[in-house]
Amino acid sequence: MICYFLLFFFCFDSLNYFCFLSLVPIVSIKSYSNVETNKSTIIEENKNKSGIYCWINKVNGKRYVGSALDLSNRLLFYYSPAKINFALTQSKSFICSAIIKYGLKDFSLEILEYCEPDKLLIREKYYIDLGSEYNIIKDPTLPPMSGRQHSKETKQILSDVKKGEKNPMFGKTGENHPNYGKNLPNETKIILSDAKKGEKNPMFGKTGENHPNYGKNLSNETKKKYLMLRKKVRILVGLNQDNKELKEQEFPLNK
């Protein structure tokens, strides 16, 4: 099925402004005109596939463009009024409000394209730019620092994009690390230290049964590493090693 998105192009000459209307044809990969009847087909055909989808209101022609790592899981959300209503209590959503108002019977669904996870947000923005009245966020590629809050799904996409070999720091250890051999100034050390103090520390409050290593039997090698690490830390902070020297009794070795 071909969808037509309306674009306004604004041009300037020495005398005045003018604009003209352009129709941009978008050929979708899959089209479902009756989403209620075709629910099982929609979920099955898009299982474990990442891509871009588009809801179209058959009453007023308004559109919503979205992306998902697993389209089937994402689309299942729209079939649950309870989940939609709960989402509306957390934040504003034009598409969720519209589905509650009209019902899925008045919507059609287009799968615009399948693409790799690291291309999702870029491709989503491409289709949003072609026209998407229900999208509140017009640029899904913007980072949280720009004032928007990413959904859990978007955070997962951004996380996956930086995993393994996709991470710019992948394999950069030892001499290959950009900070190898550099002596950080005291000011930087203080900043790094303050960033991990108190509740900012990921291990804050994780004691006893809440500690990830609770109940685990550390190997002798690991215990020795802990001993060496703690000794180095005390040296760095200037403690008197004659009075504060660690004893192996703090980490008794296995016999």
Write a structural description:
With 255 residues, this protein is an alpha+beta fold. It folds into two domains: 2-164, GIY-YIG endonuclease (3-Layer(aba) Sandwich), CATH 3.40.1440; 217-255, no CATH class. The termini are far apart. It is built from nine helices and six strands. It is elongated and about 70 Å long. The strands form two sheets. The protein has a four-stranded antiparallel β-sheet. The longest helix has 17 residues, at 220-236.
Summarize the structure.
The protein is α+β, with helices and mostly antiparallel strands and 255 residues long.
Indicate the overall shape. elongated
Give the ordered list of helices and strands: EEEHEEHHHEHHHHH
Mean pLDDT figure:
76
Structural class designation: alpha+beta
User: Largest sheet at a glance?
Assistant: 4 strands, antiparallel
Give me the CATH fold name of the largest domain: GIY-YIG endonuclease
Rg from Cα: 27 Å
Low-confidence stretches: 4-23, 240-249
Q: How widely separated are the two ends?
A: 72 Å
Total count of domains: 2
* Helix coverage percent: 25-40%
Strand order of the largest sheet: 3-6-4-5
Strand tally, please?
6
Number of helices: 9
**Beta strand %:** 15-25%
What is the highest CATH level, the class of the largest domain?
A: Alpha Beta
